[in-house]
Design goal:
Strand order of the largest sheet: 1-2-4-3
Radius of gyration: 21 Å
Order of helices and strands: HHHEEHEEH
Largest sheet: 4 strands, antiparallel
Oligomer: single chain
Strand content: 5-15%
Number of strands: 4
């Protein structure tokens, strides 16, 4: 299955492409689609999907360049401003992981830092299992100004944490 949903921001149109070579599996899939109530195609979704695939190449290339720029921005910002937090280089996504383990915080303390102090809503690594302890996931598919503001808020929150810890 593949779809233009995230790449072309069409998720709300509920369209995807499913290619099933096995006739029995294809029949079972169709039966489940009917049961779920998604048996009728979304005309706007079909048109948008076709337009994205036929005319979206230039836009997609520009998007990829912009996202790569955001990735480099995050990497440089962390290295220069918050060296305790490391970017985990992604393998082809705009959802990037940062490793906050050097801050030495529990899951609850890290969540408090992110949500209450930095005023950010990131994905806590622990929602993906115990291996995610000390990690946060950031969506970099946004305007660079938004990314800059979020990283600055994180920087300020960590600086405040270090100041409090230094005097404890």
């Amino acid at each position: 299955m593949y779809c233009p949903s995230k790449t072309f921001n069409l998720a709300g149109l509920q369209v995807s492409n499913v290619i099933i070579g096995n006739p029995e599996l294809k029949s079972a899939f169709k039966t489940e689609i009917v049961k779920s109530g998604y048996s009728q195609l979304n005309t706007m979704g079909l048109i948008a999907c076709q337009a994205a695939y036929e005319y979206g190449d230039v836009w997609l290339q520009e998007l990829k360049e912009y996202l790569y720029g955001n990735l480099i921005y995050v990497k440089n910002f962390l290295e220069e401003n918050i060296p305790e937090v490391k970017l985990i280089d992604p393998e082809g996504t705009y959802l990037v992981w940062i490793d906050c383990n050097k801050l030495g915080l529990s899951a609850e303390e890290l969540e408090d830092l992110i949500v209450k102090k930095a005023k950010l809503w990131l994905d806590a690594g622990t929602m993906f299992g115990p291996e995610g302890l000390g990690f946060q996931r950031i969506n970099i598919a946004c305007p660079r100004e938004t990314l800059s503001l979020a990283l600055t808020q994180l920087k300020v929150a960590i600086e405040e944490l270090k100041n409090v810890t230094a005097f404890s």
